[in-house]
Design brief:
globular, 4-stranded antiparallel β-sheet, Glucose Permease (Domain IIA)
Length: 295
Amino acid sequence: MAVMWKKICLIAICVACVPAYAGFLQPTSFPKTIDDLSFIDRLALKRAAYEQFESEYDENGNCISGCAYALPKWEDELAAMERYNHLSRQELVTQHGYTENPDGTVTPPAPTAPLQVQFPDVTPPAQPTQPAQPTQPVQPTPPVVADANCADRNPSFGNRDIPYGNPLGHIVCISSPYGPRDLFGRKFHYGMDFAAPTGTPVYAPANGVVDIVFVQNKSCGNGLVIEHSAGYSTQYCHFSSVSVKKGDKVSAGCLIGKSGNTGQSTGPHLHYAVIKDGHKIDPADFIEPGHKRCH
């Protein structure tokens, strides 16, 4: 009898516990966009260094690869990217002093002057027992950019907080632009590729902090992400070497690495992406005019 009562009690406990844990057995809906993620989910993705480099769609327009947190339909993806780019250009004009051009592009304001650091005068006072020495002209102190944590800086970059300028430091041809492309299937490219031989210096286009460093990432290879002001960040992939580490403060024009052919790459080049509030937008609005396709 005692054994029977023990079995009955055990069954009663199990039945009582099922409702409490039933939620773990229920299927959960997958987020439709990254906007559906919670703040905690976003932090988890960031810690895991999750990044979208390219999405792929089948012949019916359904997302099949690289789009875990993107819209599932090809048409939706194109519309979303167009909307994010429009909002970014609008904010640049209304809040950051950019000029909108007739062709829809935007031009940034002139860069601000670098921070002038005044060093204290440490010249010892003249001794009263000695004749006065002729006054020497004071040499001007060179301009110093705040938080310039780099050994090599390209002076062609102005002092900016929002990225502008080709990270290679000059105009080069574009081997693959931002947006849709047919490369072994229908894909959406979340950045811009610049042709660059292995070992070409790459510079930060604006002041910021190194947020992520990629080491032999399956897609990006060696690379990094820099956080800038106003919700902007920039991403760089396929480096042969990285010159900075996570947490470094870099100023515009600081050397951050050298281009290469690491990760998922068909040849030496620089993959460059601009991110605004978590959305990868067209880098064409953030580089000098005059860039053309390589072929």
